[in-house]
Every structure is written in structure tokens, then in C-alpha cells.
Amino acid sequence: MEPGKMALPKNAPRDALVMAQILKDMGITEYEPRVINQMLEFAFRYVTTILDDAKIYSSHAKKPNVDADDVRLAIQCRADQSFTSPPPRDFLLDIARQKNQTPLPLIKPYAGPRLPPDRYCLTAPNYRLKSLIKKVRIFIPRLSVGAVSSRPTTPTIGTATPQTVSVPNKVATPVSVTSQRFTVQIPPSQSTPVKPVPATTAVQNVLINPSMIGPKNILITTNMVSSQNTANESNPLKRKHEDDDDNDIM
Amino acid sequence: MKGNETMLDFRTSKFVLRISRDSYQLLKRHLQEKQNNQIWNIVQEHLYIDIFDGMPRSKQQIDAMVGSLAGEAKREANKAKVFFGLLKEPEIEVPLDDEDEEGENEEGKPKKKKPKKDSLGSKSKKQDPNAPPQNRIPLPELKDSDKLDKIMNMKETTKRVRLGPDCLPSICFYTFLNAYQGLTAVDVTDDSSLIAGGFADSTVRVWSVTPKKLRSVKQASDLSLIDKESDDVLERIMDEKTASELKILYGHSGPVYGASFSPDRNYLLSSSEDGTVRLWSLQTFTCLVGYKGHNYPVWDTQFSPYGYYFVSGGHDRVARLWATDHYQPLRIFAGHLADVNCTRFHPNSNYVATGSADRTVRLWDVLNGNCVRIFTGHKGPIHSLTFSPNGRFLATGATDGRVLLWDIGHGLMVGELKGHTDTVCSLRFSRDGEILASGSMDNTVRLWDAIKAFEDLETDDFTTATGHVNLPENSQELLLGTYMTKSTPVVHLHFTRRNLVLAAGAYSPQ
């Protein structure tokens, strides 16, 4: 790992010696020994990519062999793709002139954290919880009053058919009830046409839970509520933010 | 060859040479006498001869100013008026007596007299003619937390050590061990409580310098449970379970070459080889925004001294000015012929200085994107820039090992500090501008006497017209101390509010 030591052993592969000579010719005198390996790898990858592309082009042109023209075409196409260089100076001056003409926007007071519109931020949840229900889902909120207990709000739990089955388990195993709670929460989000209903069901589920399940589960369900609510609410919000776009595109 | 941009730039633009009228007459006569039309044609086509009236320059002066890839700066390039004064500090009710804050706007002189005497008399709002109007560019208003910060700042200022040739600062060095030459950027907050490191493995790591650990904000569910009316609500929102000395921020897909804390310590910016600049929240330690615009490595980024704006410069030869709430840049500063290596805001946030691999330093106006100053003189790509606290001077360091001092108002080089033997990669003025500290790849930190370097400047109209000043050879007198490290290049320098020097670098054993 010491820079400057580039003495290759005499029995190094011919390619490595050639690469060392190339580096010397380009005026590079100090480099780590790993640089030779890296350059050889790059050269190999580049050549194989070009030749693969050339093979594809020649077969496209229904030629029996790979031609010099194919290789030339392959080089040209790859150069436009991988080896891009920064835009030319006059282009930069031009767009700079355009961009610099608009006055600096005024700053709104009392804005909290000043961030771009949500679609340009990385603050949205990047996950969605997988539903555990395997049966066909019919998400019609039903009043299965007699299902569980005397609580009048239980009908909302019965939004998913499995609930009627799972209900007797509720008292026995809190853990399984927790998992059932997950499934209750998720269907509302998937049934997006029924938006107002899930909001209410979600909220009401929060009300039910504290007394029936332990504190750990409260946290889980309220998290679900908040994430689902944001997922639901972010959709209408996202549409609103279309108007916030700036007009000029860089 | 056809597509090479540097070649095109050289062929289309003219190399600028500055020459006195007498010398020019001599040259013209000589070339015409010799009937050598070839050379005369080349001169006419590719050289732009900027003639000035006055004494011809000595070899030493010429050597000091040449070096840029496009020749020297034309005189009219440095003629625009630059508002280099500082903005007035807002009035804040302070429990203690008012300190230096209100005296700052009066001082345009290089000598930092004790402003206390003037501050009492300067209650009248006398506008510094060199300071920009307060509303020249929109700046965010001060929040309560900012006002508290300012009060803390003022309290710390009273305890600040007055530095000078006989009172040198102590240097506290933070060495990054086991970085395997992967440390590529460092920044320290203004109150010296946090230090961030950008690494070649694309992570950004934030450490707490003080014993106070780093905590992230609680989850939304927990936040709804706390009492919002309590006095220590800012403590209660922090989750104790996440307290740690170090936080690692993942998100970039390439080495992180620039890092900058926001003045209110809520955000951290990092710029990377993947072409994006990322804004991280220091309350949740997650990434908030990725600003895409440069499609090439971004070598440096910095927050404005007032927050909200930030500037970034990269391989695409432009620097961009952004605001945190706009996903596209607000200004594009185009003009350099090669990569922009270093970008810094002026203390009044109205100007941005950029140092480039084309060996020039340009000063740009934030309001309209114009280049108002071009400084040539370095003989290598520029890697470090810093403004003096009074806003009048700029110090630059490059791979040639020299630190050059520039007067922004007049657009002249006013000092040259020789001593380093390798790239000067970090520069910082002390809090009151008395000492300039420079850190270099030759593993040393050098301290220079800034007051002496800037006094006795002959900046009358005559020298401004000619565009150069006689530079005294006084590097040895100005050097106050050289401090060696054990094979650790000094990547970053920072003066705490009490004028203690913090330096940072990664130990690289040879």
C-alpha cells in the first residue's frame, strides 16, 4: 500500500509490463502497485464490452464475421454513453445567463424546515407492509356485532373476513392478536376507493386497543396508523404539489 | 482532439497579457522591424494585450501574477464595485452590555482597533458605504433559536483570547485513525460542538466533540405523548436510547468530497463524486434531500453564513447557488476553464469565491451571477480559500505551496506567503483576523501574522489603475510558527470562538 513502489518482478505477466510502460509513457511516475491491476481490469472490461457490442451489430447486419466497421460503430456508441465530458463553455455561459436573470425568490417567514416539495425530498416512507392475509380479500366493512365482545366499536374490526375467525383467539394469545391487528390495518390502505372508511376504522382501532392489548402493541398499531395515514394523505398532497413545480428545467 | 473542451477553450479565447505602454511600444517596434509577420500574426490572433500606463513591472511582480491558464485578468474584469463590508447585526436584547457586534459595521479599516469604544457611539445607523444594503439579497429572518445562539456567541466573544505575534493560539489536532487514506472532507460547526468527516467509502460520519452525545428525535408516536408545554421540551423530544458519540450517514454512492454544517446546526450538507449534494437532518440523522444538477463529481459545498443558501462547485466547471427549498439551483456561476475545486461564501453572503484548477480565483455576485473579480497568480490548481472576518481580504492556497492574499475592494494581490512545500489544503483566519493559519499536505500547520501583512497598503488610485502592487518579500517575518504533525496532512482548520485552533487530518503512515 505504499505509493511510489512500482518495481514489477521480471516474471510478471506481459500485460502488466505493457501497462507499466504505458503509465510511464503518459508521465505517471508514482502510483500504487494496485493501479496496474486496476488498469488491466479496466482495459479488459472495455475491450470485451466493445467486442460484444460489435458482435451484436454484425449479427444485426447479418454479416458472417465481425468487421472493422462494426467495431468502429461499437466504439462510437459506447463513447457517447460512458465517456461523457462536461458541457462546453459557451453552453454553460448561455444557461448561466438564463438562470441568473430571474431574481432571487423571496423567503417566506415562519416556514419551519425549508425543504423542496415532498416529491423532491427523500422523506417519504420507502416501504409498505406486506399483508398476511392469504384468502381472497373482500373489504366491505361489515357489522359482525356478535363476534367478539361487548364493545360497540368492534364492528369495525370485522372489516376483513378472517377477523371473525380470529376473534376467539384474541383473549388467548396476545401475540397472534397483534398479527391480526396488522391485517386489520392494511386492508383499509389497499382499498383506496374507500378512503374515508379506513381513516375512521384506523382511528377507531386505536381507541379499542389500549385496554385489550399490552402497551407494546399500542405502539405498533399507532405506528401503523400514522404511516397508513401519511400514505393515504400523501396521495392527495402529492397531487396538490404538482402546482409547486418550477417552470424552468435545467 | 476535436471534442476536447480544453482545446476548444484555448483555441477560441485569447490569452491575456498585461504590459506597460512603453514596453508594448518597444515590442511592436521590434517585431515590425524584423519583418517577422508570423509572430505578429500570432500575437494579434491569440493574445489580448492589455496595456496600462505606468512603470513596467519588475520580473518579480510579473512572476507573482502569471500562472493562470488563460493569462492574467484584464483590468476591466476587476473594476466592478464590490460590497465587501459586513451586514449589520440585528439588535438583540442582551442581558450583558452590548459587545463588538455593533462596532463591526463601522470598521472598514484593516487595523482591528478595539471596537468597544466606537460601539457606544454607533447606535446611529450609519451605513458603511462598502457594505451591501440589508435587503440586497433575501436572507432568512432570525428565529428565536438563532437569537439564543447569537447571545451565546456574544458571551463567548468576551472570553476570546486576543491573538498576536506574542500570543499564539494553541492548536488541538483531531486525527482520524484507521481511515486508510479515505478521509476526503471535514467540517466543524461554528460553536465547535460537532465534527463531520466525509469518506471515500461514501459515508459521512458525525462526531460530537463535547461530552454531550448525539441524540436523534423520538418517533412520531412517542412525540405525541410528551408534554408540549414543558420548558425542556427540546430535551424531551430527544430519544435517549439513540444516544451515541458517532452517527454514520449512508446515502451517497461515491466518495464524499465536501461537507458543511448549517449555522443553526440543524442540517449538514455533503457533496460527492456521484454528482449530488445531500442535505442531512442532524435531528433525525437521515437524509432529507438530494440536489441533482451537477452530473459530475462535486468537489466542494458550503452553507451561507446565514443559512438557507448553499453553493457547490464541481467537475463541470461551474459553481451553483442553491436554496434548501428549491430543487434546482438559483444561480449558475460559469466562467472557469477547469474544475471548480473550492467554493466559499463572503461573510455578508452577497458574494461567492471559487477557486479552480485553471489557477484562477473568481468572485461572483449572488444577486446577478456576474463575475466581479478575477485573481490570477497561483501556479497550480487552487485547493483552499478563506475570507478574512472583516470581509476585505481573501487568502488562497494552491498546489504550488504559496498562500496569496488579495484585496477584494481593489482587486489586487497584496501578499504572498511562501513556506509550505506541498499543497496548501486548508486556510483559516482567526476570529478577529489577526492570525492566518494554513495547513498543508506537507504535514505542517503554519501561523502567519495577518495584521502585519495587511498594514501599509499602498492602494491609491495609481496602483489600482496599473493593477499591481509592490509585494514585499516578507514571508519570513510574517511566519509566526510552524507546527509539524506526524505524517498527517492537515485537511481542515477551525478557530473556536475563543480563538483556539482545531485542526483535523487523517493519519497516513508512510
TrEMBL record, chain A:
Matches recorded under InterPro entries: Histone-fold, TFIID-31, TFIID_subunit_9
Cellular location(s): Nucleus
Pfam families membership: TFIID-31kDa (PF02291)
A molecular function GO annotation: protein heterodimerization activity
GO biological process, one term: DNA-templated transcription initiation
Entry keyword set: Nucleus, Transcription, Transcription regulation
Region (Disordered): 227-250
GO-annotated cellular components: transcription factor TFIID complex; transcription factor TFTC complex
Bilayer-crossing regions: none
Similarity-based family: Belongs to the TAF9 family.
Protein name per the record: Transcription initiation factor TFIID subunit 9B isoform X2
Organism in which the protein naturally occurs: Carlito syrichta (Philippine tarsier)
Automatic annotation (TrEMBL), chain B:
Compositionally biased intervals (Basic and acidic residues): 117-128
Classification via Gene3D superfamilies: TFIID subunit TAF5, NTD2 domain, YVTN repeat-like/Quinoprotein amine dehydrogenase
Pfam family, one: WD40
PROSITE patterns: WD_REPEATS_1, WD_REPEATS_2, WD_REPEATS_REGION
GO cellular component term, pick one: transcription factor TFIID complex
WD repeat feature ranges: 176-217, 249-284, 291-322, 333-374, 375-408, 417-449
UniProt keyword terms in alphabetical order: Nucleus, Repeat, Transcription, Transcription regulation, WD repeat
Subcellular compartments: Nucleus
Coiled-coil residue spans: none
UniProt GO MF annotations: RNA polymerase II general transcription initiation factor activity
UniProt-listed InterPro entries: TFIID_NTD2, TFIID_NTD2_sf, WD40/YVTN_repeat-like_dom_sf, WD40_PAC1, WD40_repeat_CS, WD40_repeat_dom_sf, WD40_rpt
GO biological process: transcription initiation at RNA polymerase II promoter
Bias kind Acidic residues: ranges: 94-105
SMART domains reported in the protein's UniProt record: WD40 (SM00320)
Family classification: Belongs to the WD repeat TAF5 family.
Record's protein name: Transcription initiation factor TFIID subunit 5
Organism: Carlito syrichta
